[in-house]
Structures are given as C-alpha cells and as structure tokens.
Design a protein that fits this description.
Largest sheet: 8 strands, mixed
Radius of gyration: 25 Å
Oligomer: single chain
Number of helices: 17
Structural class: alpha+beta
C-alpha cells in the first residue's frame, strides 16, 4: 500500500494538482536494492528497525538476478549467515566453475523473485523507480558529487571534522525504459523525501556516499599510494598490428571509432580509469529465442577497426589472462565469434574497453548514455557480423542464429535488467583493504565479512600506440597472493564499511567499501557484498537503538549478533583439497544430466553416446572432440545423421555435490520449484575456448562454444 500511494501522489502532481511531497521517516534507509541492499534491509528489520528500501530500477537483486548465475565467492566455504541460506535455497548440486571458485546458482529470474518475496514477507516498504536527487547533510543540501577527481590523482581535500549526519535524501522519479536502461533525465524531480537515523548505501555507484561528505575515490592508485606491487598502470595486454588511423599511416586524419585518444601514464602510475563493464547476457542458439533488435543507426565505418583486423588476419578473439598464478600468462585460443555472455580479454568483446571511464562519478545522463551504448553495441556488432563482407563465415553463421533466451529477461525484451558495474566509487576510510590483506599479511580485528576471490580485473582502454592498437591492462584473473596460507581468504573489517570518524556519523557503505583498486578487484563479489550488507543492517539497527554514531557500534556485541546469524568471520587455515564434480571431466551419467548442463544441445547426446548405454563417458566425449576438430561442419553433419536411440534411465539423479566446508548441500524445506535448469548451462563455459560468445569465462548459454 505504501508503494501504491507513492505512485498515486506522483500522478496527482503530474496532473497539475497541488500535492505535498511524500515524506517517509524511518530508522534505517537502504539505498540500492542490490543483493547487498536486500540483505541489509532484511537484517535491520529483523533487529527491530523500521526500514525502507529504495531501488532505482524495477527489480531487486542487482547482478544477482540481473545477469550472474554463478555465485563467485572464491575458494573454500567463506560465505555464511542468511546469505548462504538465501543463495543456496533449492540448489542441490554444488558444481563449481572455473577452477573451483564459484557455485552455480538458481537462475536470474529465480533470484529476482526470491529477493522480492523476502522483503515482502517481512513487510518492508520498497520504493522502485526513484533515484537519488540530493542529500541533506547538516544544514547543507548537496546535489552533486563532492569530488571531481580521484584522491589517487592527488586532488587536495579537507577532512570533515564536524561530525555531521545525513538528515534526509530526496528522490527523483525516473523509471527505467522498456529495455531496462535508466533514462537520462527524471520524469519528476524532488518526488519523495526520506528521513532516517541511519543510511546504508548499497548501490554499485555509491551515490549517497558521493554526496555525503565522506572521502571516496575511483580509478587506479599508484604502486606507492598503498605500497602495492600490482597497483597502477599495468602493461598492455595486447598490441595488435592494426593501423589505428582513419587514413592509414596518417595521424592527422584522426583515430578510428572505438580507439581512444588518451595518454596512458608510466607503469605503476595512478589514473582515473575503471575496468570494463558489460551485460551478462543469456543467449539462445536454437532459433526460438527473443530476436536481438536490429540497430537503428548502424554505420559500417564505425567497425573499421574490426574489419581491418579480420582482413589482415589479426587475432582479436583469443583471450589472454594471468590465471590464478602471478606472472603466468595464458592464451585461450578462439575462432571468430560475436556476442558473448561476459567479457573477453581482447579487442573483440561485448564492450569497448575505456568507454565507461566517466561512469563512476558521472550523473545519470552520462550513465544512461554509457548503459545505452552497450546495448546498441551488441545490436551493431551482431549486424556487422551478419552483413559485412569481411565477416568470416563461422562468425556470420553464428550471428544469424544468436538471440536472447526466453523466460529470463522477458520484461525487458531479453536485455539483462542490470548493467555489470564491476567497480565505481570506493570509500576511503580509517581502514583501507589493500593488496597486503589479500597476501595474508594483515589481521584486522573487527571482521564483518570474508572475501576469498583472487585479484580479478579486465582491460581499461583501447588506445593507439606506435601506429598500432593496444588493449590496456586487465590481465588478472582470479589471482591468489597468499601462497595458500589462508586458502585465499582474508578479512574485511568494520572500519572499512563506515566513514572516518568525524566525516559522516550515520552512513554505512557495504558495497563501495574502503579498499584500494587492487583489493576491490578481488572483494567485488556478490556473496561478499551480501554478507557485508547483512552485517551493515545489524550494525545500523544497533546504532539506532543506542543513539550513537555508526563508528561507535561496540564490536563485541556486533560480533555476537553476527555469530548468532552463523556468519563466517574467521579465515580458512591452509589449502582446502578441491573435489571433482560431475561434468567437469566430460562424463554425464544420463540424458537428464546432459540436458541440464547443455540446454539447446539435447539432440547431441545420442550422437556422443556411441555405445547407447545412456551415459557419456570421458572416452566418448574425447572422441567427439576429435571429431569436431576434423570436421568443420560437424554440427550440420551430425544433425543430418540419424543417431541410435538412447535409452533413458528412469529415476537416475545427479548425485548431490559437496561444498568445501561443513555446510549442507540441500537446504531444509527448500522448494524444488525454485530449481532452474536455465542456470545449469553456466557450468560448462570454462571449456569454451574457440567459438562464439564474447567472454565465456562464466556464462555462455546456448553457444557452440558451450560444448567445446
């Protein structure tokens, strides 16, 4: 009813009738209905606080439900509390992806529905389609970011010693468009006012943080800033022999589209660049999906850099990364492709690296432009692959088949409901999580969550260098630094989610936490943010009850409450033996098991099951791989060939997996209806090294590469 009243009031105002701006007064206001925001709201409400949750879009969960099916929580069992229970509800098989660093989840649609139900069951008021307009801090109204350049770029700043609080925030009504993209300008400014005793900023952008007066930054710090060996500008990941100029060899003619005119500093220096963003698509190759819209303003000249690469035989498709081990660079060879469920560490990706540099500290007009650019880029690059004479045959064939999968993001025409903002603002507080924490060299005392994912970044720009095209930085891929001492796990202290004492005494920031760029590339995982959100919600309620600044919340009492919630707050000692799971070695015990992993490729099972025993052995799968390597048109050949019928084994079930640790695999009382087959395709993307899909490290549903 509260949410309904909000929209009625807005309608009245828009029709020209006098109406007061709705004013909500609560104990705790959570801004950002990300997965972290949902956990913060639930935790604060369970502690007895009156809570309101604000989400600029129409959906809860952020990337957990907005594109990410894998739950990237790193090695070992570091996720506990309500986060573990919510994420694992209905999940029976704990298959882990890309080197045992992730757990497969229940599916995007299922998570969105689960988050919505969770807040509805607790009676929490949610305000959708409203975004931050201004913040009342003390007697001042702040309607723009308080910084213009990152602290790492040495912009001078004065610490706020007045101990001011956020009194209220004012929201603008700005519904997302039909594709799930934010609109540049709001429909109505100053539409709703919210006063609260404590504010929790759970947005990916850190917008409340940015107007609160608390210190924050973005971009890459230098090596010297926090004494981090991996920090700052990194070597180019690729330097391609592609002429970057409109008129080849003539710099005066200007740069080709998508090649940026920017100067990169020396190695180890600071800059304001942010690693690439993208959408985490769910594709369909069966011909029955939602068509990817044709571009409305396609210009063939815009894709000249790709045309020159293909024409001259330059490999812009192979992915390169420093995987798990420092200074060990590997290449994953790929044939020409288009589309992609994630990014690719090369020039051909589902984004143009560097196009998002204005996003972290930008206004919504800027963000809307960048968000829309990514949507249009996919439509255009698919059209390029379909129609351009330079497009390789395999790339063209793939582009003719690719579509959005139905049943996941139908409300937005197949477009994911959340833009993958990997990193935006970062608070700078009394404790900054740095590379030293990841290396296991620190032991902060006031833990409110653990992280256990390696350093993981993506390229930062596409630039011209010495007459060639370079892809800048972005090689780190789940890079562990502690030598196995704590199995990659490290502590995130309470001091890193609250501002410095004296800057803002009623704000908690569990997403844009106080961390260096390098540390943030590791801790930026959804389950980590959810755990921190729950801890923040408990702390906020405690601060309200005691009428104290959030910095003064007694940790001993907070820790007891977090322990009661079964939070995991102690680091894992020593390496944990990784366990094999079905499917990762090319073995499937039944047609059903295959179907769950290989959605869209069900027809292929009897062709691989050559002995017709209802199973696919490792030998049979390897034989299939050899067949593929020898036959360029293997798919058409097999589709025309009649396979021997394969008997189905009734009652065969995939054996329950085993999580690393002492958590059960099956959550008691969970609904079987929540188990989704749509997410199960994500498990096989790590094998995709040669075919269509822009980055297949995590989710590449229904592409040919899914079975390589």
């Amino acid at each position: 009813m509260k949410t309904s009243f909000i929209f009625i009031a807005l309608l009245t105002c828009q029709n020209g009738l006098a109406a007061e701006v709705p004013h909500h007064k609560v104990d705790v206001c959570v801004y950002g209905g990300t997965a972290s925001g949902v956990m913060a709201a639930l935790a604060a409400e369970k502690e007895g606080a009156k809570v309101i949750l604000i989400e600029p879009s129409r959906w809860l969960g952020g990337m957990t439900g907005g594109g990410i099916n894998n739950l990237d929580w790193g090695k070992g069992n570091t996720v506990g509390g309500s986060t573990y229970k919510l994420l694992m509800q209905g999940v029976q098989v704990q298959e882990q992806q890309h080197g045992r660093h992730a757990i497969r989840g229940s599916g995007n649609k299922q998570y969105r529905e689960r988050f919505k139900k969770a807040v509805e069951d607790r009676g929490i008021t949610v305000i959708y389609e409203h975004r931050l307009g201004n913040v009342q801090v003390g007697d001042a109204t702040i309607d723009a970011p308080t910084r213009q350049r990152p602290i790492a770029m040495n912009e001078s700043f004065e610490e706020n010693k007045k101990g001011q609080s956020i009194r209220s925030i004012t929201l603008d009504y700005a519904p997302f468009d039909k594709t799930g993209c934010p609109i540049p300008e709001p429909k109505k400014r100053d539409a709703i006012k919210v006063s609260a005793k404590v504010f929790i900023d759970c947005s990916y952008e850190g917008d409340v943080l940015g107007m609160s007066g608390a210190s924050y930054t973005w971009g890459r710090e230098s090596r010297e800033h926090y004494d981090e060996s991996l920090a700052g500008v990194r070597p180019n990941l690729w330097v391609h022999d592609i002429d970057p100029y409109i008129e080849p060899g003539n710099p005066e003619s200007g740069l080709l589209p998508f090649v940026q005119d920017r100067k990169i500093g020396p190695l180890g220096s600071a800059d304001a660049l942010t690693m690439g963003y993208c959408f985490r698509y769910e594709f369909d190759m069966s011909g029955k999906g939602i068509p990817i819209p044709e571009p409305t303003n396609y210009d063939p000249a815009e894709f000249e850099v790709y045309r020159r690469a293909v024409r001259d035989g330059v490999d812009i498709f192979t992915s390169r990364k420093m995987r798990t081990t420092l200074n060990k660079i590997t290449d994953a060879k790929r044939r020409p492709f288009v589309g992609g469920a994630n990014l690719n560490r090369n020039l051909m990706a589902s984004t143009v690296y560097g196009c998002n540099d204005e996003y972290p500290n930008g206004d919504w007009a800027t963000r809307s432009r960048i968000w829309k650019f990514h949507q249009e880029f996919l439509s255009k690059i698919v059209h390029f692959a379909k129609t351009d004479p330079s497009s390789p045959k395999s790339m063209k064939q793939h582009a003719m088949k690719i579509s959005f999968r139905k049943g996941v993001f139908d409300e937005t025409g197949g477009w994911p409901s959340q833009f993958y903002v990997r990193q935006a603002r970062r608070m700078v507080s009394s404790y900054v999580v740095t590379q030293k924490d990841i290396e296991g060299k620190t032991d902060p005392p006031h833990t409110v969550g653990l992280a256990a994912y390696g350093v993981d970044d993506w390229p930062y720009a596409v630039i011209a260098q010495d007459g060639k095209v370079a892809v800048q930085g972005g090689s780190f891929s789940i890079l562990y630094l502690d030598g196995g001492k704590y199995n990659g796990s490290y502590k995130i202290p309470y001091e890193s989610i609250v501002p410095r004492k004296g800057e803002c005494d009623n704000l908690i920031v569990p997403v844009c936490v106080s961390a260096s760029h390098i540390a943030f590339t590791s801790l930026r995982m959804e389950p980590v943010w959810m755990v921190l959100g729950e801890s923040a919600g408990v702390a906020a309620a405690m601060a309200v009850d005691a009428e104290i600044p959030v910095q003064d919340v007694p940790y001993k009492k907070l820790r007891q409450k977090l322990d009661d919630l079964d939070q995991t707050l102690d680091r894992i000692q020593g390496p944990i033996k990784e366990q094999k799971t079905q499917g990762t070695s090319g073995q499937w015990k039944s047609q059903e098991a295959w179907d769950k992993q290989k959605k869209g490729w069900e027809w292929l099972f009897p062709h691989i099951d050559t002995d017709s025993d209802g199973q696919i052995s490792a030998e049979e799968y390897n034989a299939f791989q050899k067949y593929k390597a020898k036959h360029k048109n293997w798919e058409d050949s097999l589709r025309k060939k009649k396979a021997a019928p394969t008997p189905r084994k009734k009652g065969v079930r995939t054996p329950a997996g085993h999580l690393l640790g002492d958590k059960p695999n099956i959550i008691s009382g969970s609904s079987q209806s929540l188990i989704s087959t749509e997410f199960r395709r994500s498990s096989f993307v790590i094998y995709a090294i040669s075919f269509p899909s822009l980055n297949l490290l995590r989710v590449a549903p229904l592409s040919r590469s899914a079975i390589t």
